[in-house]
């Protein structure tokens, strides 16, 4: 039940006054809903092998475009594709030449592989068109050897196969046949499919082979279900994997694929789980990624470490990640962002960063709010890490507050751009995002502290954050509301139904009101043993699931509440919000309720998102003015 928030607004700065004749310069204007909900201006940019251009999808329709880096402005030039076809994926084949997969949905859906000349946009088909497959994904490309590997699932199988495609002719040959229950395939640096990860029931397993001519086998033991990432070393049975260390944190280990066994510990962070790792050309770990208070990349390789330091020096105070590079690595394409900026792409070379394109140009020059990492002690002494956003241009004193628990609940918030948060800060609110007990990324012990704590310890951690901020004088404890989605929506409804005098109002999107009904809905996706474990993890020592359900206590609800839900939600069905709405209606309890036709767990229609933001703004203006 994880949830990703959407778009929001920004804060207003102060007024500048000039000398005679006296006039006030207009305050910087907060973004409109249309600006906040604009589609990304650029997606999936890829630097050409010679570093002369960038291919990317651009707004408004995600069309393929080329940035010519020889031009000072590097203005993108759209490449026209045949009418009636849409772009599936693309990759540089070589300087001036792109490979792309195009799909046509008229009649029987078909896809075809084409080569596109970036200079004149000429499209040449490679090989035969074929029936469209499910989940087509590019796994590997070797330009020198002239082939690529595609993972795709046809309609005869419920798991994917891997196909080898000749770059000169487009000829496809089967590299690895689909295998029952195997959904992910792992490729080594030479483009050999070496391993597959599968699940059957509540058990995971690994199939493995040493080389291209070998058969796959399961080795001597099942794969550890807690292993999140594998990487085999070319020409060896050895490799690396992320797995849980004795401390409970995810760490990097050597891995014996033949025996399906962990080897020696390579690296463990003393605060956070590792999120991923990269291998260098020599097959050794080059670096690891993790998130403590923000995303980090620790490079073991000296060259990579120096390169990262040079990028961070010219783009300070930001999270900077290399997303593409020329073959000689003289030119790097860097994604750079902060919690107050959805991100900008830069070309980095010779120690300098050249701005290429912003994710959302409409937000440039608008006053967005600063987000800082905080930590406070819960009532039982547990340290709770989180984030505090303060409205731009306002002193951190007696501010109205919105508490925004994340979804999941076994997930976490990070130092990432969050449009909802920016929207609230733009209306004058401080925003608290607590990584309450049960949050992931801090090791197993922290996650396990959330077991059996729905509506109890998890809720207390959020409440304790309010008390901590009030004690520092940063917020006005009489002007606090709670807002969230999915599990965060549950927390908002729970706070409203079990009012402790902390919150003035509550806002729930796609929230859970009846825990038993939600578990009955979830049951169909679980094996029985796994379902019982999940149910026990939620209920803990509570006398019943009803005792954890906000709808059970609807009669006691007195604070204003706004409830919203999408009618096509496949994660938390809409009847979860309808149950609370119906109960409050029967009881004659005033509340606001809205359904969005066709919306899933996260909103996809900008018009619906704009409507919801407008409702949130009016609701807060009425019940907790900023």
Topology record:
Elements: H1 33-36, E1 42-47, E2 53-58, E3 63-68, E4 76-78, E5 85-94, E6 97-104, E7 110-117, E8 123-131, E9 134-142, E10 147-153, E11 161-166, E12 172-176, E13 182-187, E14 193-200, E15 203-208, E16 229-232, E17 238-244, E18 250-256, E19 261-267, E20 274-279, E21 285-291, E22 295-299, H2 302-314, E23 319-325, E24 332-338, E25 341-349, E26 352-358, E27 370-377, E28 383-390, E29 399-403, H3 419-426, E30 430-435, H4 444-448, H5 457-471, E31 475-485, H6 487-497, E32 505-509, H7 515-522, H8 528-539, E33 561-566, H9 575-586, E34 592-596, H10 606-623
Parallel strand pairs: 29-30, 29-31, 31-32, 32-33, 33-34
Antiparallel strand pairs: 1-2, 2-3, 3-4, 5-6, 6-7, 7-8, 9-10, 10-11, 11-12, 13-14, 14-15, 16-17, 17-18, 18-19, 20-21, 21-22, 23-24, 24-25, 25-26, 27-28, 28-30
């Amino acid at each position: 039940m994880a949830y990703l928030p959407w778009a929001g607004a920004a804060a207003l700065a102060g007024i500048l006054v000039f000398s005679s004749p006296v006039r006030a310069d207009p305050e910087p204007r907060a973004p409109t809903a249309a600006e906040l909900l604009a589609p990304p201006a650029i997606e999936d940019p890829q630097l050409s092998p010679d570093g002369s251009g960038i291919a990317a999808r651009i707004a408004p329709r995600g069309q393929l475009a080329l940035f010519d880096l020889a031009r000072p402005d590097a203005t993108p030039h759209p490449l026209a594709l045949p009418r009636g076809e849409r772009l599936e994926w693309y990759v540089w084949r070589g300087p001036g030449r792109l490979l792309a997969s195009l799909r046509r949905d008229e009649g029987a859906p078909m896809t075809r592989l084409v080569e596109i000349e970036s200079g004149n946009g000429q499209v040449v088909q490679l090989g035969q068109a074929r029936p469209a497959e499910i989940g087509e994904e590019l796994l590997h490309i070797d330009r020198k050897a002239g082939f690529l590997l595609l993972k795709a699932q046809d309609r005869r199988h419920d798991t994917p196969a891997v196909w080898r495609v000749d770059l000169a002719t487009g000829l496809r040959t089967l590299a690895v046949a689909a295998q029952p229950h195997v959904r992910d395939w792992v490729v080594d640096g030479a483009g050999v499919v070496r391993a597959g990860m599968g699940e059957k029931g509540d058990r995971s397993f690994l199939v493995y082979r040493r080389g291209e001519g070998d058969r796959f086998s399961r080795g001597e033991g099942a794969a550890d279900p807690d292993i999140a990432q594998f990487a085999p070393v070319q020409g060896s049975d050895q490799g690396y994997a992320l797995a849980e260390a004795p401390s409970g944190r995810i760490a990097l280990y050597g891995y014996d694929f033949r025996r399906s066994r962990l080897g020696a510990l390579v690296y463990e962070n003393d605060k956070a789980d590792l999120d991923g790792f990269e291998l260098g050309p020599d097959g050794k770990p080059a670096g690891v990624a993790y998130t403590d208070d923000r995303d980090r990349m620790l490079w073991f390789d000296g060259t990579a470490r120096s390169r990262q330091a040079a990028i961070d020096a010219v783009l300070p105070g930001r999270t900077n990640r290399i997303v593409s590079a020329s073959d000689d690595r003289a030119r790097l394409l860097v994604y750079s962002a902060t919690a107050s900026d959805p991100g900008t792409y830069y070309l980095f070379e010779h120690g300098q960063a050249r701005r290429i394109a912003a994710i959302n140009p409409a937000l440039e020059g608008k006053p967005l709010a600063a987000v800082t990492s905080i930590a406070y002690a819960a009532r039982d002494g547990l340290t709770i890490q989180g984030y505090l956003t303060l409205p731009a241009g306002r002193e951190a004193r007696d501010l109205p507050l919105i508490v925004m628990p994340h979804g999941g609940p076994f997930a976490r918030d990070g130092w990432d751009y969050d449009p909802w948060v920016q929207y609230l800060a733009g209306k004058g609110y401080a925003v608290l995002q607590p990584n309450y007990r049960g949050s992931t990324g801090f090791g197993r012990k922290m996650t396990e502290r959330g077991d059996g704590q729905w509506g109890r310890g998890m809720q207390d951690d959020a409440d304790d954050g309010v008390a901590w901020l009030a004690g520092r004088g940063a917020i006005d404890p009489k002007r606090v509301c709670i807002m969230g989605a999915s599990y965060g929506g549950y927390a908002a409804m729970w706070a409203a139904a079990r009012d402790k005098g902390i919150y003035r109002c509550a806002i729930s999107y796609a929230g859970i009101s009846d825990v038993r009904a939600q578990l009955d809905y979830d049951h169909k996706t679980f094996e029985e043993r796994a379902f019982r474990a999940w149910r026990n993890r939620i209920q803990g020592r509570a006398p019943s699931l009803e005792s954890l359900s906000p709808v059970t206590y609807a009669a006691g609800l007195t604070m204003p509440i706004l409830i919203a839900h999408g009618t096509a939600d496949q994660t938390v069905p809409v009847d979860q919000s309808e149950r609370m709405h119906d109960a409050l209606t029967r009881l004659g309890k005033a509340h606001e309720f809205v359904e969005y036709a066709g919306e899933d767990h996260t909103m996809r229609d900008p018009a619906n998102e704009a409507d919801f933001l407008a409702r949130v703004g009016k609701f807060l203006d009425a019940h907790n003015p900023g």
